[in-house]
Amino acid sequence: MYVGLDEPVRECQYNQICTRNSLPMETLGHKKKKIPRRKWQVFPGRNRFYCNGRVMMARQTGVFYLTLVLIMVTSGLFFAFDCPFLASNLTPAIPVIGGVLFLFVLGMLFRASFSDPGVLPRATPDEAADLERQIDAANGPSGPGYRPPPRTREVVINGQTVKLKYCFTCKIFRPPRASHCSLCDNCVERFDHHCPWVGNCVGKRNYRFFYLFILSLSFLTVFIFAFVITHVILRSNRTGFLSALKDSPASVLEVLVCFFSVWSIVGLSGFHTYLISSNQTTNEDIKGSWSNKRAKDNYNPYSYGNILTNCSAALCGPLPPSLIDRRGFIQSDTPQPVSHSNGSSMYASTQLHTHMAASTPLLHSNPVMIGGGGPPFPGKSSLVVPCASLVPSQPSMPGLSCAGDMLTLRDPDTHCHHHHFASPEETPSPSGPMPLTLPCAAHMTHGGHIHPAQLYDPASQDSLHEDSVRGLVKLSSV
Predict the structure, then answer these.
(1) What is the per-residue pLDDT across 352-377, written as a single tens digit (0 to 9) for each?
(2) Are the CB atoms for 46 and 58 separated by under 8 Å?
(3) From CA 381, how far away is CA 384, in angstroms rounded?
(4) How far, in Å, CA of 330 to CA of 333, rounded?
(5) Is residue 105 within 8 Å of 70, Cβ to Cβ?
(6) Whether residue 195 lies in the annotated active site
(7) Which of 73, 99, 312, 381 has a CA positioned 20 to 30 A from the CA of residue 295?
């Protein structure tokens, strides 16, 4: 609970401190600190994280390792058995060019596989409830036999009407071009497709790396295939075809792997080149979202009308930041502003008394605020805590005394009165300076528990106001 004074307490006289049921200060400082958890550890989607959340992949990664093995084995055989002969008989630039292509392919593969494709964060319970209220208010009252309409919203983009669909898993209206991946169980911004060969979804944040990967892999495959055949032909002219195969058996395996893979890789690169030039996604092309067969006036509102501009926007535009903050810490007990009835604000927390006990040793294990919700007193506010939790080793404070059932902090020029307020409505109107009264634990508790009539917790009255603004975050981003 929040405890505050309107102005600093003036010097008083220290007389006596009650020490019944007091706890040593050492026990407060030796509490075990909880290790903060990162957001990737509680991520709701079907993803795997490595390197403390820096690497994000899909759960099914077996095909990705097959892709990695095929690239490394084929390239390794080429550098080990073909490049020495080609460098000595043709030019040393062949292994250099092959090495640059190989490193570029691996770099683009790892970047596309290990990065966030553009996952949209799911709505919090408060945001989902607020969105449900908005949907119910828009649909009107429902009676018997009432069938709710489909949850869609329409936005206009460059003169074209685009429907936003509601995701029942993420509890949000998906932005334009976003879709929910059933394998990763995430809504991905500008979703293209889920590629098992890279072990990740392909979306807004990694599409350029995926395209550069398949494009560079096409060049590498054609490069290896062409120079392996050149190697075999040069050896055949010297020693014969069979002798050439015996001298370089790895060339046969390389030719077979490149021959059967070059068609699919080159064809995939050509297809995505067409998509980039028209600023479409694979998902939109398969569904025919912008096909003229649907309507005569149906067109792609995302195209710039120029092939060069579309390619520049897809490959050279700024990379958007990740929205899920997977390496951020979970702030489960972060204080949030709570509105008070008197117009002021305070901070409430789910584990606030732990922080109060660590920072203020004069407080009891169950601190309460009395008189905090009423009208503010001029000059001072009443502060009530059990004096049993005061530590005898505290330095002397003038005017601090424990007389009977109350621990009173008072000014030397004023008389001390014992006040015990149950709520702000019972407080008398202040006509002078208010004393600072601290009740002893023996009179505040009954059987180890505080009497409910003596407590007033204003934070519980305003609990419904927490996170009142966060419900519109997702809709405002659309």
Answers:
(1) 333 333 333 333 333 333 333 344 43
(2) yes
(3) 10
(4) 9
(5) no
(6) yes
(7) 312
